[in-house]
Design goal:
- It is built from six helices and no strands.
- The chain has one domain.
- By secondary structure, it is mainly α.
- This is TSN13 protein.
- Keywords: Membrane, Transmembrane, Transmembrane helix.
Amino acid sequence: MVCGGFACSKNCLCALNLLYTLVSLLLIGIAAWGIGFGLISSFRVVGVAIAVGIFLFLIALVGLIGAVKHHQVLLFFYMIILLLVFIVQFSVSCASLALNKEQQSQLLEVGWNNTNSARTDIERNLNCCGFRVFDPNETCSSDCFRSRQCQPCAPIIEEYSGMVLRFVGGIGLFFSFTEILGVWLTYRYRNQKDPRANPSAFL
């Protein structure tokens, strides 16, 4: 059977959703590992990571069941949700890759000012205090605070922020293209007849 046939479309769609399932479990596992080893104390950050992992797992589950059973309704909703996720993820990935140094710095400062728990994790892991200026009168959870000789966190974070944004943007773009591939496979698969089924029963 050629690759454009029913069986090939079904197998490709199942393989794609198995990949999404593994990625979702990996995302949930990394968040749990970060909490277990004390690397992340921000429940907001962990909650977002776990929520994204569960959401991706549910989407993959819907796609997998729809592909195995050739269920028209499940495949339709899977295709629509995957298309919406593609639009959002593609936009965010392009924005991450397009940010210049000044925009990255402004974004980091806004995030720093709005997250107390993540700020504590950064100070402890990077051994720095404050964002732009070290203030010995403020509380800080890093080891260098005991000697009152800490450097601000902004230069350290900005040194790696560009690389991190490029990495995140690249990964996001890669998965966005797999999502549009999934939309196309689902659309084609929905309109194919199962050769083992009764042709008169196909809707």
